[in-house]
Amino acid sequence: MSMLRQDVQTHTNYSDGENTITQMVKSAIDIGIESIVISDHAKGWVSGDGTRSEFFPTYEKYVNYLQEVEHVKNVFSDKIKIFSGLEIEIGVQGDFKLDAGIIEYAQKHKDRRKLGVDILLGSIHSESFEEDCTEQEIKVKDKRAVMIENMINLIRNKKIDIFAHPFQALHGQFSDNLSEKETEQIINTFEMEWRSGHSIFFELNGKKYPRYEQWSYNKYENGELETQDINVLQRYRKRGGKFVLGSDAHSIQGLTDTDFSILNKLSLDESEIFMFYERN
Ligand SMILES: [Zn+2]
Ligand SMILES: [Zn+2]
Questions:
Q1: So what's the pLDDT on residue 214?
Q2: What domains, with CATH codes, occur in the chain?
């Protein structure tokens, strides 16, 4: 399998990406991508100088985002299938971390299950996890269990469609992979969700992380980049799990500057990739 037919994770200049929604979509069409999810970050973060930036500080900005995605959907409908989305940070209590503009939107539109978008990506980033642990005074010895609980809470959240880069926070915090027991906990949770009718998928993330990215420092110290846990992924697929692929592009170059060697390692079949436009 060579081509990325559906890209479930892309960022635009609405959050920390470089390009506009239209530029990203046009590029995706040029490359030959059939379907794309625009998935900007739902909450800003604390930068080096200690200030917290918001991507959607106002209701208006969030509505603009939604409208712009709807606009490109129509304009390019004969060339590419576009979905609106958000990448949402899931806190250790299972809470959604959202900027003020999205919170206001949620209050005004209680009927919109998914904050007005088609697809919600749930993620845990090491830095955000660290913040939660500090705030909630979680002891170092308890961190591992809290992380697993955090992952489980994400999978159980019925609004979430995709578990984005599932091992990122784990490897940012710990140098070893999931244990046998932890793997079973995670996969059992998936199974329970599927049985209850909740479609949720592991994302295989193709972003090439630069060496200095903090979340993977443990793995780099060992001289290897291991962002995917093959054992867990194999177990997941054996139990019937399907995958979605995301470039995690933050620019038009990011759409193709990817590493999907994991697909070969898993010898993944096309039928194991879930395509959102085939839903229903
Ligand atoms: Zn980003
Ligand atoms: Zn992310």
A1: 45
A2: 6-278 (3.20.20.140)
